[in-house]
Design brief:
heterodimer; A: alpha+beta; five-stranded antiparallel sheet; five-stranded mixed sheet; 12 strands; B: five-stranded parallel sheet; 5 strands
């Protein structure tokens, strides 16, 4: 069905049809009812006539009975019923005649009335007016004719009554027929109405509801991302076609918006990806190349290049990417007008980007700078984004379309801006990384030089020292002949100083390693007890020859920690050696170990010469030696405590010295114990 | 007579070691650098070699390694002398196949006893 119909006319027609059918059924029903009732009324209309007619017979029969009674008895009492009957007869007949509309019945009633009257006037009345005395004679005379007349009346009455009954019967039949017809007609009207209404409903359904359902489904199907569906604009009523057109238009707009949004998201995703790639490198050239390549391939530009700032101006050198099939532009942008820097700087300061799509011919461009740019690059569409970091302009990112005109959409410009920002950050990173790398290289070089220097110093000092000490030993061993006691004591001085030099070299090297932090700890689970006893064994001969008693106080059975056993033994030995060295013969050195609050302490107490109070703050200065030590000509390099403290600190521990001149010194080495959980492991490992 | 190759680029030390070992009754074959030492060792097959680590032409460690690689000299005990005292140097030395290691400055007496020990262990 292609004829267009409006919902309005459709509804009017449908409702009109329904209304018409309603009226039709109503009218037919009413007509039927009235028809049927008319028939029945006609039937009922005979009833008074019939009753009156019968009453008339009764009245005349009463009158006849009265007359006959009078004639036979002569009693005038019987005249009363006669007179009453006579009066009733006239009245009833009159009533019967007036209540009928049938001519035939009226005629019959007239005839009947005439026969009745004939009997009354011809027989009854004369007899009634006869006095009782003369009655017999007269009675005999009239008796025969009276009966005959009354029989005439009876016959007339019967004829009329039969006719009335027949008529009434017929009318009743007619009424029933009318009733049946009315019923059938009403039924037919209802059937017609039902068919018409159903047809209307079906039509409305087909023309209105089905298209409506289609529209509803289409609307329900319009979900985000599913805006591709369209409604048929050539179907359904006018209004629905309009709605379909409106919906299609809206869907079109939604689709466009979705496309734009997808573009934006895609561009953002691209921008993030490019930013990530750009940020991955710390080399300026690679960063820039990565950026131009990524931007160029991502957006399908013809050329993308970056010019970095150099000494306050945009560098003539560019890093360029170009589409396949295009020749590299090389250095053709060299000598671009100096104003370009000013323009880019202005853009940067304002936080803007510049883009153009040139529809005019280059020579028609009034702006000199733009014309210059267009003529040099052959650009038909350009995007120019300053690259910067903070307040510093670092360069400019240029996107060109040379083969066609391109109108730059917002998502694309956003991408360019985002990449430029990432590029700015990456360039700053690359630059600072470059500086750092330089610094690291210089530091590494310094470290290497220092190590070389230390190795050289070590070698160069040890070699002559070997000769000095070695030859002195040979001489004193009298390998080259006898040595006088005087010579021997002189050689002893040489020997001692050589030994001191040797110690000094060792300490210096150790200290420089500690201070350079290149001091590597060979950490492993270890037992403090082992370390202390090792140091005690080493110092025992010296203590014995110095006449110093070394006492070890009982401490915890095991004291496990993680550290460099060799270095810690060196530290303990250093402290013990000091204690023995600075304690006069007969003195005592007490060694004790303890565990307090997650710390292991190794305490060495001596009864030595002590350190003057005033000099104590300088204890850890390199080469510092207490005045009472030098005065007593006690050997030392002045580096020992510094080394011990260095070792302690490398283990996360501390070194404390408590001394009173002339009374003695207590040195406490404190080292952290491992966490309880680790301690078991340390214990186990140390025991293995 | 027990022969000992002594290699050190420093003349004073070379002579110091030579003196000590000669007095102890050994025949000392001195060398001034690594290459000479290696040549001498290969030619004379000494009973022990005392090599300085830091030498021109070839380091004591290189000489030691090459000796070990050569079947004829692989069994000769090597005593390394060095001015370096760091653990890593000692490890390198033993890794190259040295039998003993002495740090400068050393005592000639100790050197002699080390050589004696090496000879004894070799004889055993």
């Amino acid at each position: 069905m292609n004829g267009t119909i409006s919902v309005r006319s459709l509804l009017i027609r449908s409702l009109g049809t329904c209304l018409a059918m309603l009226v039709l059924v109503g009218a037919v029903g009413m007509a039927g009812v009235s028809l049927a009732s008319g028939g029945l009324n006609a039937y009922a209309g005979f009833e008074p006539q019939r009753l009156a007619h019968r009453a008339a017979l009764q009245a005349l029969t009463d009158a006849e009975t009265g007359v006959r009674g009078y004639r036979l008895t002569h009693d005038e009492v019987f005249l009363d019923p006669y007179r009453d009957g006579r009066g009733r007869f006239g009245r009833e007949m009159s009533a019967a005649m007036h209540s009928d509309d049938s001519d035939e019945i009226t005629r019959l009633l007239h005839d009947e009335l005439a026969t009745g009257n004939r009997w009354l006037e011809g027989y009854a009345d004369p007899l009634a007016q006869t006095s009782p005395s003369r009655l017999d004679a007269r009675g005999q005379k009239y008796a025969h004719s009276g009966r005959a007349m009354f029989d005439d009346y009876r016959v007339a009455h019967a004829t009329t009554a039969q006719r009335i009954d027949e008529l009434q019967e017929e009318r009743l039949r007619r009424g029933h027929r009318a009733e049946s017809i009315a019923f059938l007609v009403t039924l037919a009207a209802i059937a017609v109405a039902v068919v018409a209404v159903v047809a209307t409903v079906l039509r409305t359904h087909r023309l209105l509801l089905i298209p409506l359902r289609r529209v509803r489904r289409a609307i329900a199907a319009f979900r985000p991302g599913e805006s591709d569906r369209r409604l048929d604009e050539q179907e359904g009523p006018l209004e629905l076609r309009e709605i379909a057109r409106g919906l299609n238009l809206a869907a079109e707009r939604v689709r466009a918006a979705e496309t734009a949004r997808e573009d934006l998201l895609r561009m953002r995703e691209l921008a993030r990806e490019i930013g990530r790639r750009v940020g991955m490198s710390l080399d300026t050239d690679r960063v820039v190349l990565e950026a131009v390549t990524a931007v160029g391939t991502a957006i399908g530009a013809d050329r993308v290049y970056v010019r970095l700032m150099n000494d306050g101006h945009l560098d003539a050198a560019v890093t360029e990417w170009h589409a396949e099939g295009l020749a590299p532009s090389g250095r053709e942008w060299q000598g671009v007008a100096e104003d370009a820097t000013a323009r880019v700087r202005a853009l940067f300061v304002e936080g803007q980007i510049w883009h153009s799509a040139l529809v005019r011919k280059p020579r028609d461009v009034s702006d000199l700078l733009t014309r210059n740019h267009v003529e040099r690059t052959g650009a038909r569409s350009t995007v120019l984004v300053p690259i910067g970091s903070g307040d510093e302009l670092l360069g400019v990112l240029v996107i060109l379309q040379t083969e066609r005109i391109r109108f730059w959409e917002a998502p694309l410009l956003e991408l360019a801006e985002s990449v430029a920002a990432d590029l700015g950050r990456a360039l700053v990173n690359a630059r600072s990384f470059g500086h750092q790398e330089e610094l690291v290289e210089r530091l590494q070089e310094l470290d290497r030089v220092k190590s070389d220097f230390l190795a050289t110093v070590s070698h160069e000092l040890r070699t002559p020292l070997t000769s000095i000490a070695g030859y002195v030993e040979l001489i004193r061993d009298e390998d080259a002949g006898p040595v006088t006691p005087q010579m021997d004591s002189m050689l002893d001085v040489v020997d001692r100083n050589a030994a001191r030099l040797k110690a000094l070299i060792e300490d210096l090297l150790t200290l420089s390693r500690i201070e350079a932090d290149s001091f590597k700890l060979a950490t492993a689970p270890m037992d403090v007890e082992v370390v202390v006893s090792g140091a005690l064994r080493t110092i025992a001969p010296d203590a014995a020859s110095a006449g110093v008693e070394v006492e070890v106080l009982p401490g915890p059975d095991t004291l496990h920690l993680v550290g460099d056993a060799g270095q810690l033994e060196r530290a303990v030995l250093n402290v013990l050696s000091n204690a023995v060295k600075f304690t006069p013969a007969g003195g005592r050195v007490t060694v004790s170990t303890a565990e307090t609050g997650g710390l292991a302490t190794i305490m060495v107490r001596d009864t030595g010469i002590g350190i003057p109070q005033a000099e104590q703050p300088r204890l850890f200065s390199r080469f510092f030696r207490a005045s009472n030590a030098t005065a007593a000509a006690i050997q030392g390099t002045g580096l020992g405590l510094t080394i011990v403290r260095g070792i302690a600190e490398h283990h996360g521990g501390t070194l404390e010295i408590d001394s009173v001149e002339g009374v003695g010194t207590t040195v406490t080495l404190t080292l952290p114990l491992p966490e309880p959980a680790e301690r078991g492991m340390a214990q186990l490992a140390a025991a293995l | 007579m027990t022969r000992v190759v002594v290699a050190d680029d420093n003349t004073d030390i070379r002579e110091l070691v030579t003196l000590k070992l000669t007095q102890a009754g050994y025949e000392v074959l001195p060398a001034r650098d690594g290459a000479e030492a290696l040549e001498l060792v290969r030619r004379t097959r000494p009973d022990v070699a005392v090599l300085d680590v830091m030498m021109p032409a070839k380091s004591g460690i290189d000489v030691c390694r090459e000796m070990r690689a050569d079947e004829g000299t692989a069994a000769i005990p090597v005593l390394l002398l060095t001015a370096k005292a760091q653990t890593s140097d000692v490890v390198t030395g033993f890794g190259a196949g040295a039998d003993a290691y002495m740090c400068k400055p050393f005592s000639p007496r100790e050197l002699l006893s080390q050589v004696k020990t090496l000879l004894t262990s070799r004889a055993g």
